């Protein structure tokens, strides 16, 4: 039941206090509590009185690990849980890691001397624990006093830190308020300056707009004048060009007539040249045909030579076959001779028949292998010669096909050359007729352009007179506008001087405020120095107290050593007394009677 309850509380975020007093929690409950302390972030108070958690070492160690990982629990009650010195050591390890627990109640357990020392040692690293109850644990009084002193140190440290934090908060608030006031004053000053700048910019924009309008009107008039002048110059240039064109056209007509005569003559010459070239090309083509015929003859000769080579190779093949037959006959004769020798050897050497038969078999096998190898080599040579013959026949076919294609290409080139010469003659005649027609049309157009340009010159002269009168009026208006501008510039100078005086006054006020801010900064620096001095003094006091604690601990160790010696001596004395009493009892008459009974 406890496991289910704690499993549900792991994800809870509203429960602040949990009381499980007297519920007989065992290892499962202790492990569930450790898991709860690891995952839960809302519980601030946990009561576990009368649960005997210290009896289960594994579960209690898991619980202590969860306590070390928790940073939200502030109060823990572990009264009457039979915690021994080992459990106290694990609790001390957890307290060194924990940074949130403020109250811990361990009354009526079995912590003892070793557990008290472990808890005292952990208080050197734990700075958050304020209250630790150790009554009813057989802990010596000096350890209890040392624990109280360590807790008092923690409380003093926390009070000093809280006071310093409060002072820092007060100073930061004052500094922020002063900063906000200065920012407000500066923003007001910046707003006034911006307003003055905007008014000045508006006046400058209006004046600049007027000036720009007048300047644009003047520029337009100048551009009109320049355009009219440019038109006059263009018309004059066009007239001069038209006169030159008329003169040039007359010259061109004469030149064209001369060119026509020259072209006719050149055309006649070109025709003659083309005829000669065509005759030369025909001669070249005939020459090429003769060369192709010669090539054909050479190819035929090559074919004949190849056929001769084929015949020679066939004769060689015939000779090779004859050689094969001769070699086979010789081999057969050798075999017959070998058989005769074997028969003679059989007659002579009857005892070594078996050995000789084996040798004969080996020689016959060797000869047959030699015959087969020679036959194979001859067959391979015949196949190679046949392949060479086939390749030569293919080369002959290719050469004949190439000769036929070259002859067809030469005939096609002759036909193309004749057609091209005819087309070129027709195109040249058409081009000359088009040139004559265009020259006549351009002469008529030039005469019309001359008449139109004379009319444009007269109109342009009239417009120039009107624009000169309009320009005089604009010049008078410009003089008036320049006088207005001068008066407005004088007014602007007076306004700028006034603004400068006001800005100087505001700068003086700002410098005074800046001096006040510097004084405040000096005060803040002095307060920070005081804080640093207080913190340094506090650190020195802490170091002194830690030194005193170390001395007290050494004294405690010395006293514990003396106590252990005294206990050993008392134990020895008690053993001596017990032995003496036992000896006395055994030696007395009462002891003898009791032994008899």
UniProtKB/TrEMBL annotation:
One of its GO terms (cellular component) is centrosome. Signal peptide: none annotated. Keywords: Coiled coil, Cytoplasm, Cytoskeleton. It comes from the Eukaryota. Residues 211-245, 289-413, 471-569 form a coiled coil. InterPro entries: Centro_Cilium_Assembly, Leu-rich_rpt, LRR_dom_sf. PANTHER family: LEUCINE-RICH REPEAT-CONTAINING PROTEIN 45, NY-REN-58 ANTIGEN. This is LRC45 protein. The lineage of its organism: Eukaryota, Metazoa, Chordata, Craniata, Vertebrata.
């Amino acid at each position: 039941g406890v496991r289910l309850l704690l499993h549900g509380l792991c994800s809870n975020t509203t429960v602040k206090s949990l009381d499980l007093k007297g519920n007989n929690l065992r290892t499962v409950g202790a492990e569930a509590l450790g898991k709860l302390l690891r995952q839960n972030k809302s519980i601030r108070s946990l009561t576990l009185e009368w649960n005997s958690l210290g009896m289960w070492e594994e579960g209690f160690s898991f619980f202590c690990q969860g306590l070390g990982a928790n940073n939200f629990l502030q109060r823990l009650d572990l009264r009457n849980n039979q915690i021994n010195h080992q459990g106290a050591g694990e609790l001390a390890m957890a307290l060194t890691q924990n940074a949130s627990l403020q109250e811990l109640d361990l009354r009526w357990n079995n912590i003892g001397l070793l557990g008290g020392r472990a808890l005292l040692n952990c208080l050197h690293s734990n700075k958050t624990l304020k209250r630790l109850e150790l009554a009813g644990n057989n802990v010596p009084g000096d350890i209890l006093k040392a624990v109280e002193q360590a807790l008092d140190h923690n409380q003093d440290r926390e009070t000093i830190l809280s006071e310093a934090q409060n002072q820092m908060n007060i100073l930061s608030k004052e500094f922020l308020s002063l900063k906000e006031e200065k920012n407000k004053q500066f923003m007001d000053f910046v707003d006034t300056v911006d307003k003055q700048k905007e008014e000045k910019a508006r006046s400058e924009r209006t004046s600049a707009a007027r000036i720009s309008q007048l300047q644009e009107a003047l520029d337009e008039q100048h551009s009109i004048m320049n355009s009219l002048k440019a038109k006059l110059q263009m018309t004059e240039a066009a007239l001069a060009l038209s006169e030159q064109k008329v003169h040039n056209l007359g010259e061109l007509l004469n030149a064209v007539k001369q060119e026509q005569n020259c072209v006719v003559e050149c055309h006649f010459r070109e025709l003659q040249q083309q005829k000669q070239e065509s005759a030369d090309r025909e001669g070249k083509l005939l020459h090429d045909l003769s060369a192709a015929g010669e090539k054909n003859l050479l190819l035929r000769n090559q074919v004949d030579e190849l056929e001769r080579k084929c015949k020679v190779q066939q004769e060689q093949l015939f000779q090779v076959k004859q050689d094969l037959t001769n070699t086979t006959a010789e081999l057969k004769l050798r075999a017959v001779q070998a058989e005769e020798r074997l028969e003679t050897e059989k007659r002579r050497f009857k005892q070594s028949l078996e050995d000789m038969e084996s040798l004969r078999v080996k020689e016959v096998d060797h000869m047959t292998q030699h015959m087969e190898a020679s036959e194979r080599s001859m067959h391979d040579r015949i196949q190679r010669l046949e392949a060479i013959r086939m390749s030569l026949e293919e080369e002959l076919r290719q050469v004949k096909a190439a000769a036929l294609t070259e002859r067809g290409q030469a005939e096609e080139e002759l036909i193309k050359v004749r057609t091209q010469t005819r087309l070129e003659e027709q195109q040249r005649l058409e081009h000359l007729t088009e040139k004559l027609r265009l020259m006549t049309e351009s002469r008529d157009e030039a005469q019309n352009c001359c008449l139109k340009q004379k009319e444009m010159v007269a109109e342009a002269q009239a417009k120039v007179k009107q624009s000169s009168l309009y320009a005089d009026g604009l010049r008078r208006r410009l003089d008036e506008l320049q006088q207005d501008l001068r008066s407005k510039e004088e007014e602007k100078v007076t306004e700028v001087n006034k603004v400068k005086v006001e800005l100087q006054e505001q700068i003086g006020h700002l410098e005074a405020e800046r001096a006040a801010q510097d004084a405040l900064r000096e005060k803040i620096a002095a307060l920070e120095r005081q804080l640093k001095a207080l913190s340094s003094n506090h650190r020195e006091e802490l170091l002194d107290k830690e030194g005193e604690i170390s001395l007290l601990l050494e004294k405690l160790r010395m006293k514990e050593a003396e106590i252990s010696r005294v206990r050993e001596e008392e134990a020895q004395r008690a053993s001596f007394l017990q032995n003496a009493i036992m000896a006395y009892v055994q030696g007395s008459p009462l002891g003898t009677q009791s032994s008899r009974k």
